[in-house]
Amino acid sequence: MAKAVRFYETGGPEVLRYEDVEVGEPGPGQVRLRHVAVGLNYADTYFRNGTYPIPLANGMGVEASGVVQSVGEGVSHVAVGDRVTYTGFINTLGAYSTERLIPAAALIKLPETLSFETAAAMTMRGLTASYLMRRLYDFKPGDSILLHAAAGGVGLIVSQWAKLLGLTVIGTVSTDAKAQVARAHGCDHTINYSHEDVASRVRELTDGVGVNVVFDSVGRNTFMGSLDSLKRRGLMVCVGTASGPIEPFDPQILAIKGSLFMTRPALADYIAEPAEKARLASELFDHVSSGRIRIEINQHYALQDAVQAHRDLESRKTTGSSIFVI
């Protein structure tokens, strides 16, 4: 019998249930997939707590890697026995499971040079880093970025990618230990926001100019400080709301603070087209396979420990990537 983590109401980690599930055979356009490793992402908590509304009851998780067991009618780009990985949004919910049915279109073939564990730890984070670094801003060597949550899974990949592009990286962290992790992965400077004012420190580090781009995954608590860290006509990239959603604001503030630009992108819109997803994945896989970008898996959980995994994630106990091992 297959196992899965499901939830029947929104709330804290305690709403997650580990239970038996029937999988069945794949229908047209579907694949039956046996998971080997499953990704744990902060976005999972948004589904669980209702920030991202979905019909209930439902499965949990949007990222995993594994082996194709059987394919439905019309499936041609993957075959039985293929090693694959995936990430997505509502169309891939249900990743916290030992086996599942999934739309074949979501699957990305996994090179032999990458393990299932690495894939589960980086497909969402890595593709996010890929579009952040390659699709939103025309970076040039010498440009600078402010990266919130620099010791997190996305942060560590973005830092390393930024250094490949010749950028100066300023990362924010909550502890001295996380500062060490961030610096080891490419951050030129770290700011401990527990006792330092981020915007003031950024101005000091940039001779009063500010940074070209801010990647802000924190949201409400860091929003104004992020705007104050940008140079004239800089870009504010809102990529998450770990501290809560940003309060409504008058767009005039963007003009007052230097004719700033602002965007709230979503990974789903950058991997919706198969050709673009393939290009982003190819560049990511190449960087990781060559060792230019290291994927740090610092937490491993059993699937039945999903409640504890979510507690650890939300209490900021984790660094790098976290995975469930099946």
From TrEMBL:
Q: Which InterPro entries match?
A: ADH-like_C, ADH-like_N, ER, GroES-like_sf, NAD(P)-bd_dom_sf, QOR-like, Quin_OxRdtase/zeta-crystal_CS
Q: Which residues form a coiled coil?
A: none
- Protein name listed in UniProt: Quinone oxidoreductase
**Has UniProt tagged this entry with the keyword RNA-binding?**
no
Q: Which domain of life is it from?
A: Bacteria
The lineage is: Bacteria, Pseudomonadati, Pseudomonadota, Gammaproteobacteria, Pseudomonadales
Q: Does the keyword NADP apply?
A: yes
Keywords in alphabetical order? NADP, Oxidoreductase
Q: Where is the signal peptide?
A: none
Under the heading Pfam families, the entry gives: ADH_N, ADH_zinc_N
The Enoyl reductase (ER) domain sits at 11-324
SUPFAM superfamilies in the record, alphabetically? GroES-like, NAD(P)-binding Rossmann-fold domains
Q: Which organism is it from?
A: Pseudomonas capeferrum
